[in-house]
Amino acid sequence: MRESTIPWKQIIEFHREIAIRSEESFFSFDMDDQGSERFSYMRNEAVQKMQVDSRMRLNMFSNQLIFTNIDQKNSEFYIGGIFWFTNKMIDGKWIKIAHPLFYKAFNIKKDVSERLEIEPEQAKWDISPMFYKLLDKKGIVLEGDIEEVLLNLIETASQNSNEEGFDGAFISLFISKFPELKKEFVENAPWGFQRRWLTFVAPKDFSAIQRNLILDYSKLLEKLNENSDVLGGFELFEKHEKTKMEKISVTPIVPLNDNQLKVVEKVISGNEVTVVSGPPGCGKSQVVISILLNAWEKGQSALFASSNNQAVDVVRERMRQFEKQVPMVVRCGAKKTSELMMTLDKMISIVDNYDDKSRTARSTEEIAKLERDLQSVTDLLNSNLPQRIDELARAALGAYGKAGEYRESWESELDLYEDRLKENRVTSGIEMFEADAYEPFKKWLEMHVSILDAIKRDNEDRRNLQTKIGDLSTQVSKLLEEDYAESSGERLFTQDKLDEIIAWYANYNAFLLQFVETDLKEVGWLASYEEWKSKEEASKWITGTDKFLEAYRKFYDRYISDINEINQKQDRLRKAKNVLSSVGIKELNATKEEILKLWVNLYNKYVMMPKKFGDALPFSKRSKTDRQLTEYETQLIELFNSTYMSEYASDPVKRRGFISTHSDELFEEYVANQDIAGIMGKLSTLQTEQKALNDMLKNIGITNIESVLNINDCRRVIESAEEKLKIAKEAKVAYEKRDRRDAVIKKDRDLKFKGAQIMYPLMAGIKCESEVNSFFELVNGNIYTELTLELLKDARKIMYNHSVEAYIERLKRASKLWDDIDETFAAIEEIKEESKYKLEWMEACPETVKGAFSKMSYQNIVNTSEALKEKLDEIYADWSKEGKETIEQLKIDENQEYDWAWDSIKKALDLCPQNVLPDNKENIIAHIKEKGWDVSYIRNLFSKISSEGIIIRQSRIKTALEYTLLTQAVSTRMAELYNNNDAKAALTKLYMDYKKTNEVITKQGEDDFSTALRALPLWITTGQSPQAIPMKPGIFDLLIIDEATQCTITSVLPLIYRCKKIIVIGDMDQLPAIDNISISAEKFIADKYNVENYMYLLGHCGCNIYKSVLNMIPVKEGNVVSLTDHYRSHPLIIGFANYYVYKNRLVLKKPMKEISDNKVSGVFGINVTGLAYRDKKTDSWCNEQEANEVIRLIQSFKSIREYSNFSIGVITPFRGQVNLIYEELEQTKDITNVLVSTVHKYQGDEKDIIIFSPVVAKGMSPGAAKWVENPQNLINVAVTRAREALYVVSDFEVCRRQPGILGSLIKYTDKIGILRNTSPFELQLFGLMMLQGWEIEVHPRIKDIEVDFIVAHLGRKVIVEVDGRQHEKQKVMDQNRDAMLASNGFDVIRIPTREIADTPFETIERIRESLAKDIV
Q1: DSSP state, residue 1339
Q2: What are φ and ψ of residue 648, in 5° steps?
Q3: Does 195 have pLDDT greater than 70?
Q4: Cα(767)–Cα(601) distance, rounded to whole angstroms?
Q5: Which DSSP category does 924 fall into?
Q6: Which one-letter DSSP state was computed for residue 1073?
Q7: Does the CA dihedral 21-24-28-32 come out positive or negative?
Q8: Could you give the strand order of the β-sheet that contains 1335-1338, starting from the edge strand earlier in sequence?
Q9: More confident residue, 521 or 272
Q10: CA-to-CA distance for 181 and 498, rounded, in angstroms?
Q11: Residue 254 in 3-state DSSP?
Q12: For 905-945, what is each residue's pLDDT tens digit?
């Protein structure tokens, strides 16, 4: 047997004492029961004496009966003091109950003198756990630890106690700190009560709730005393090797998601410790039901327990649907909830009458097929494909139907207008009526009025114009009578001709004003000028010569040094050649030059050699050098004239002297040659420049330069060019003067000729005595006479006479008058005849209304047109006011519906697998286009993938599978039981035993219970009511604890002893377990039993069973499984908790159709400006204005059909508000189907509608307001109780300022309200997106642009804009907005409201696809 590492006996004793102290009666004392053996008041001097002396007499106590059993073993005493008071109804009488604030455990003994020795067992004073409940009730929240606050008050009171003593000093300090508690501590105190302390012992009798738990601990201690090695489920807390599990498949009697299946599989397969994190609505009950059913089917025993009846009852009710054939679960516990006897009786009856032959079973293959079919249809539904296809098909048919309705509407409306037009013989259709008929007809009538006015006006104008012509002709005659002998007034010239005369006169006058005398003088001329034929030719020659001279100057400046160098080197070479030529020596080439150098060097050495004896010998150095010289000379001999060389051929000395003499000359000529070679490039450049200069000389006709190296030759050419240039410039000047004279003479002649031409018509009839006549003679008589200075003088004299100018002015005026006469005649010609006007008007009648005037005369048409106008005005007014707009909108609506229908049907076909369609998609589209929108055809298209059909099929498969598996399990289990006589007998014996003991298990019944578990392996109870279950280690294979975060270790430890494996299910964000004692009291008790090192795992305060089992996991290597799929609440409701509490861990699974269709669901806020106050009865906070609004809301729900079947719950943090609302609802008889309670009563419960009244308003203390949201679990529980609708009724202004979860809830409610008021489609889309678990910002601003939503998922963000119909007219504006948003890094999705309403699945899919972009 393995030795335990945990002192379990001490642990059990520790928790038993906590259970005892948790009893409310432990800290409650009847003020009228002065003779109780349970407590005794201490005299004041006893309290004071106790501080300095631990011994005191019995008479220091008011009631000595308490010490009667002081010598008995295990007597425990406590001293308590500083009381508050409550009233309690007992036997129809109000009793004053005192409750101590502080208490401490003491060891009290009697000495031989009957004095009491009082020794404290703990150092610090503990605070009554009832005080914490009082604070909660009053809604008081303190900054800092309450124990530290009170202990500081004790210390201060001790230091400042005066005449009123410690008690009085403490109470004064206490009330100043807690003014809300003055009533309980001061005002409720009995009259004349002296603040005293008392000694007390634990009560002998406990309440029913605690009695069974304390008794259970006593039984457990007894078991451990009998055999401390058998620990049952306590072994799970010990450190030992993990048990290997053999995986057992789960029987899918109820459907499970992946995480739920994972939990059930591990539990059934034998996982010893399993922790399930189960937020509200995430299917915890489904997991429990599946575990229980699988355990039952597999013959495993299981005990389900929780700390409250509500969680237990939920599971009990869920299990009933599976017990139609045979009972499976035993609900035991309190008498009012127990079904123990009924279940045993029923089981015994079934076993006795069971017929084994009736057992039938399906094959494994059939079950497997059902499971596959179920999985297949479930996967299909989970993919949302059928739903998307359904909504698209419905949207298509609906849109097609609407399109037809729109068409019928506008066609009918159109026909009414068309008929009215036909009645008036108007051939235009109503749609083109305005453009084709009405406006043209109006203009035609307006034209008639204009014509009548025009006829009248034209007749008057004609008369006026004729008079004007006569007046103008008279003015012309008078104007010209000075110049012409006769003047009829007829036009002599046109305006163009007059313009020519005026222009000519101005030109001739300007010519005469010029100083041309110089130009008219004779020009001096030389024969040498004739070389150039014109000024231009002379100018061209001058330019060419200037260019040459400039080019030569540049050439000379640039190359003169090169020219001098070349001349010098050429001269040197010429001299060297002459010297060599004089002695007949040829030029030296490079090869010979090298040989000559070698010869000279060797010869110089040879000459310097001293003569020695033996020089003549062949091998002497001198002989060798001589031979070498001879060899060089042989190679050089061709350079020299044969005549010279023949003289020295036989005489080497002379020959060598000759060569030596002329070697320098040879070298000089060679070097000169080399120099010439070095300047060849320069010479080439000079030759190129010479050619360019000669080309320029050729152009100007001057002899070439023979060589630029010859400076004299160049100077000769330059001088010749400069001399000729001088003559050319003189010739140019002479030509210019002659040209100017000729130009003056020519211009004079041309002007006179032009004047004679244009003024010839004016000369006829001119008076001879007129001064203008001499002007005409000047112009006409001297046309061919060459202008001279004399003629110029005469012309100026005539022209400077102002009579000519006056004549021209008269001509101008006459021309203006003639123009007026011509214009007047033209105006008369343009005036129409009256008959033409009328005919034109009749012919201009619009074609569309001509039928109304068929074969009518002018006058009849005029008469009929007025009547027709009145009728057409009436038609047009009706059409333009509403008819046109109505029909246009109906057509737009029709087209939009057709487009929507086709888009939807195509999308549905694209989504639909080909194997479920009767034909390919192209043929289906063609068929619909050809045959029309046959509703039955389209419905049949998608019948195989209809979501409704699949859901029905899924339901049928589930039912069949559940029935099959359950029936098979029942048959197997009952067959086993049928043959198990021991189990059947045990059932009967157990039934009789329970009947005798009022459902309390006896020792004799323990073995029968174990055997009966084979027949009834599933038991359900609360931790406080285990009296029907034996205290046997490991009697159950499995213990399931629900709402584990609310279960203290104290409440479930005896149950753990009874199991082999454990699974805890809870949510750390729901309400925590309530500690029944203070931390300091726990520490004292832990020290007392020496278990302080185990508090982290097995303590009481702040250590619920969920947390404790979590601490076991690292040791046991168990599993924590999170249930994250939420099925209960509307997404707007759970969305708040998911974001603010669960940090988006939840995946919302509520069917999308429910979100789309249900308009009464979601989150609603009702702002009530209220006033918080304390209720006199309960001293708890109330808010009457909020209460009245809650009641009004409930009454309205009951009158609304949509809410008629909904369950309603009201949650508020304060008991006073609960009472206020409940009492009013009772009076108005509206309490039916309504539960009003505090949050703590709602844990594990749920309602269709939850109304939350936080009460927080003006008048409430800051501590109470803070208590409402600290911890946040309280509001989280309140919110998550709602399935369909959450109504927050509160003072928004005050609550919004709360720093915690309450403020967040109001802001969230504001957000929903904004969406609801802005657009129901935005609200619907928000709910749909919440289902996806995306992060959503509502109406955020991107710089200065407000958008509808920013949706974020996996690090990617997109903007979602909801577009109503108004956006159809602002597409450009929307495009500009989208471009600006895109520049800030956002993709924008625009969703029409129609899409949200008709195809929500498609809408969500669009957003999902956008969010999935760029995500690997």
Answers
A1: S
A2: -110, 10
A3: no
A4: 124
A5: H
A6: P
A7: negative
A8: 1335-1338, 1349-1353, 1356-1363, 1387-1392
A9: 272
A10: 122
A11: coil
A12: 888 888 888 888 888 888 888 888 887 888 778 878 887 88
